[in-house]
Amino acid sequence: MRDDPLFILIALVMLGVVGILLFGIGSFAKGGAFSRKWSNKAMQWRIGAQFVAIVLILLFVYIRRGG
Question: How many domains does the chain fold into?
Fold first, then answer.
């Protein structure tokens, strides 16, 4: 399974979600003008990245089940 390109793509997208989440949490923690500018935008990016990850996971399951 680790050699599957779709699996690797899913893992990379999931790491991207974690990275965006950590950036968003860090911007909340920093506060001030930086937080006002980036916190909400980072969480919107996270939702988009999570959507992509879920779609890829569902595609992976569908393909592997012989869909």
Answer: 1
